[in-house]
Design brief:
single chain; alpha/beta; Spore Coat Polysaccharide Biosynthesis Protein SpsA, Chain A; two-stranded antiparallel sheet
Length: 298
Amino acid sequence: MASIEGRIISLIEAKSRQQNIYNNLKSLKQFHNYQFFTAIRGSDRKLERRGLSKGEHGLWQSVLSILDDTKNIKGNYIHLLEDDAVISDQFFRWAENLPVKAGTAHIYFTDMWVGKQNFSQLKSISTEAKKSNKIFLVKDKGYSGCTSSWLIHKDHIPHVRSLLKHGFQEASRARIPIDNFIRSLIYKGQIRVKISLPFLTSICLKDQYKSSIQDSSTESILATRLFECFLRRRLSVLSRPQDLKALQYVLNAFMTTNEIDDWIEEILIPFFERNNKYRYTVDTRLAGEPRNEQSSPH
């Protein structure tokens, strides 16, 4: 049975996020296996960041610092988490069945970015997995980005750390976000990964309205990010009907009142009709009364 130790990356002032993830892990009786890591702040100097935002720069440094300090890890795997992550009880049942010895995958991701480009493909895999009550593993190039939740076997840490450190310190190129850099390593064949589907962890939607890494100042960009976070929640075991509340913000940001009316008419009503969703109370008093005719202007 495999064992894990977790590190939660969190800015010192992010008290609400820390409380949320603490409550999450405590409810699953797993917090004793996790520690908070005080996130390193990115540099104020653009020249030092070399193309990264301040938050991206801080995340890079935080991950490298954690991987530099793993000598005393007793578990088989280190679990790196960002503080807006949400963990399911299925995650721990799945993690216990990971290979005790280091396998072919250097990294396991249990959540990742989902957009309109890859939602349909991932949805079909996730739906099939849920129907069969299994966890499917998507390999390598299926990884689309995000380091919200990832596991590294302790024997693979030196290899992963070396590649990341070299990429961060290389003086001849501009830096890119850490998840994009991991993707580049995958495509070069230097790192092998596996991604669980359905996702066994997700992100807290309410925390996406303000991010230290992503742009939250432009409403259309924020709405796009929130919508994509909603999509990834739909592919997780943590998807809930109340997640639909996030769509209210997205619709208001993306669409005018007339566009919402068109969407209701062209998409929503036909969908309800096609899937026989309408239900009416039968009123016997109205038997034989004329039905409504379609209205048209005179």
